[in-house]
Amino acid sequence: MSLLVVGLSHRSAPVSMLDRASLSVEAQVKLLQDTVAAEPASEAAVLATCNRIELYADVDKFHAGVAELSTLLAQHSGVGLEELTPYLYVHYEDRAVHHMFSVACGLDSMVVGEGQVLGQIKDALARAQELHTAGRLMNDVFQQSLRVGKRAHTETGIDRAGQSLVTFGLEQLAAGAPVDSWAQGKKALIIGAGSMSSLAAATLARAGVAEIAIANRTADRAERLVQILTEAGNAENAENAENTGLSARAVPMGSVADELTRADIVVSCTGATGLVLTADAIAAGVEGRVARQPETVRAGAVGAVEASAHDARKAPTARTTPLPPAPMAATSTDEDCPLDLASVPSGFSVMGEAAVAGMDAATLEQHAAWAVSGTVDRRQGGRRGAGPEADSELIGALAATAASAGRIPERRRPEPVAEPPRPEPVLFLLDLAMPRDIDAATHRIPGVRLVDIEALAEASADAPMAADVDQVRRIVSDEVAAFGAAQRAAHITPTVVALRTMAADVVAGELARLEGRLPGLDDKHRAEITQTVRRVVDKLLHSPTVRVKQLAAEPGGAGYADALRTLFDLDPETVASVSRAGESTEKNAKNAKSAQKAGDAENRGPA
Known about the structure:
By secondary structure, this protein is α/β, with parallel strands linked by helices.
């Protein structure tokens, strides 16, 4: 069996596709159940975050596994397989382990080095264990990835290469200002009470907001988060001997509209499949709070917009309507102009199309050359440096244009469109949900600044990489090699155990036969013979079994287990039973350890 991962992330798919393919908790549960029920897979786990959806499985066939996992992802995400396939990536065996460890270290995150993914990996493993879809391989690779991620954050400065998504989002909202000074004294509304929302609330509390309101579908979780914030605030106040004045409270989801009218910062991260905040609700929340623009600024902005609109309306109809008036060029600019400037009707540009209407070919050529390259000496009969062939081609092209269009199009650069100045934001929105919680149309509401997953992806695309990233990559490579060696060694262990069990059975049988032939042996001689026979067998098996474990730990070493089973004619069912016995023993040990922890916690009493 081998590890296979099929998924999509912010690196392979646009945010819109991640939005559509996002999985609810119920969908993840059904996906896990259907995956282990499929023929190629025996174990499965789902890692679904705001910017990735990955299905891990232990499969016995690569191609069949890829086809099955891709189909299941499409089925449970609701996106058609043909539409989803171009955005999927596949990793297998050591490459799948390398990808898993890189994700755990934050190397594959939208913000490099963020550590929140470790909690998401832990939750994914816990869900798979709860549904009994995680076996030895899923447990090993997920638990080891957690250890590798913690090692990367402990031994290197990967945290300096980036921040958590929450911190990065708040920095984008602050637009370059320090988050602590920007958030100081503001009122925050947190929608959702999951891990991301909890992190946002804690971050804002440390930044110095004056008030935090928690809205969640389940009131108990909101109350619990309020309690945590309050206790943390009290502990910090006691340590610093000061009172920050933070007020935290839980509010029902039905009160969100009212809370919008008084909140300065809103962070939303829920598991809802539809919008939590519509553009209309946000517009109502900021109504009356946006500062009025000065009349002079507003008038100038309106005039600029109207002028731009006028030019835009005129430009597409240049062939059928006269151009707007344009000032005549200065005398120095009009030098050597082939036109009789005195006869040019007012309101027309010397460079424009109407000015050349009805020209003969020679004058037309002269005017075109003058318009393109400046003043032209009419006595030279053409452009400077142009030969007869170039003149002939130009005259032919101009004549053809004039014949077909009736005029020569004016060569004019479009005027820049002046946009009215936007008022300063009074409401800052951070949408960390996937699919999105906040209507994207909110971008157009005056007085509102919205940062969502898509904006974060664009902002982090050019984020600088810390030198510590290279060190983390080396850690990942070393850990992948060690994990692969351990897995290959573990793969051959049941075969070695079965071989030694068979040898012990042979020894026992031969000693029993000897007992029948020599019934008069005393206990001393019988023990000496038994020990000698067992020592001979152990010495014969020692070198081959040690060597085969060493060889099996190398890449491609899985074949040595097959060779050992073939050479000694080992029963495959015996090997499988040894493997099952080892898994059962390991599971019982884990259960006993969990029970001991629970008992210790009970003995200690409530915290």
